[in-house]
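In response to reviewer comment 3 from the previous cycle, which asked for concrete evidence that the modeling workflow produces usable outputs, we include below a single protein chain processed end to end. The sequence was submitted unchanged, and the resulting structure tokens are shown without manual editing.
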Amino acid sequence: MERAVGQVPYGRNDIFRYAKMSSQTMENMKSNIECSEEFPLSSSYEMAMEALSSLITRQKRGDRSSVGGKYGKLDRMLMYLKILGLEEKIAGLKIIHVAGTKGKGSTCAFCEAILRECGFRTGLFISPHLIDVRERIRLDGDLLMKRIIGRRPEFRGLYILDTEVSKSVAYSGVVTLFELHCRLDSYLDISEEKFLMHFWNCWNQLKVMQKEKVTNDLPMPPFFQFLTILAFKIFTCEEVDVAIIEVGLGGKNDSTNVIKEPVVCGIASLGMDHTETLGDTLGKIASHKAGIFNFHFQVLLNWADFFPLLLKHQIPAFTVPQLSEAMDVLQQRASELEVPLEVAAPLDHKQLKGLKLSLFGDHQFINAGLSVSLCKCWLQSTGNWEKPLKNANQEGDMMEAFLRGLSTARLSGRAQIVYDTPLKSYNVSEVTESSFGELIFYLDGAHSPESMDACARWFSNAVKGSRNSPSSSCVKVENRVCNQR
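The workflow returned the following structure tokens.
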């Protein structure tokens, strides 16, 4: 098969070169996909999970990719997107793209909650998941949960306390709050019906590709690549107003970096992690993260002399304060691409007007500051700045929608406190301090020196706080996040 260089945005030719199949081959393939009935839509979620599990490569951390072929990861990603007809549709998404070592997941969760509270239909892609793979893909956050719970008889009597994002339930039976919390969290993400519909649509088309043997060098995508493709499929089909995309690993060569024109990019805290892949110095790691910086040219016609004009359009970027070794690399790369890079100041607790961040830990003020800068830039760049300002009391105040988002964002399994108790009550007013069991779960997935330090500080403060806190008249299960994904 002949290899040709596709049309790509200026400044990223080193990243976006990929082999194009011949137009006749692609058209024949699309025709076969549209007419194929060999892969009927399955209603079995278990079957979908089995299919998805078959894409796990089981390679050890640091090993070279076991996916063969002559194409690189991003080459393959672009070819998959073309097969699924998503290449042009992704260009229509208004994306916030976030990389980083620690805090990028928290930043994305804050952004999603803020813009949802501003009245926009949101899509969020993050990783990893804890219990259900659908945790990685969210549509409209809590709004989806509220719609689903209304149709689920097993969750009758559910109460949601917005100020603390706490959940208590009058459940017809015996269930621990830990079990209930895990079950409820799965209903905050994309519904099973929508997930299956989009999953099998992507799966079947890519399987047809394999059956037709269009190329032996394009196997089924590995696990994370498939989920990235699926997220793009869902967000384009569901017509979200904004898609918040978390980088999986690194930035430059990450599967999400097929995004050619995000609205704004963000870099969370950088540290030493995945050194076997990204490099053994902070500068090398920062170079990979800066790979999401981008710009593109717009072609305008000068009708006076019929001469085309190229206007360079920079994609704005923000970073949290970094160590000098990392910051120097970020600024150098931004300067090379003429990308406007700003440092987002940590959020001042006074700006919250007495509210608390829903994600726990002092480091979350850094992530919250980045998310505020990203959301403000997104609103301004998309011409939507006036929408949330309608409810602002005065200029300079944190907008009410921003405050609601910062105080209700959720990200499970990071610096999370779960009280375990058998809850037999049928009325939330009957749930008192005496209802608590003796177990308190402190959950976190810290796995690097920086995140372990943040986790230890959170745990110490949480234990001290629980000993000094007054008696509570309501069960509280709070989502808290440590400074990692």
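The first strand starts at residue 95 and ends at 99. We consider this sufficient to address the reviewer's concern, and the full set will be provided in the supplementary archive.
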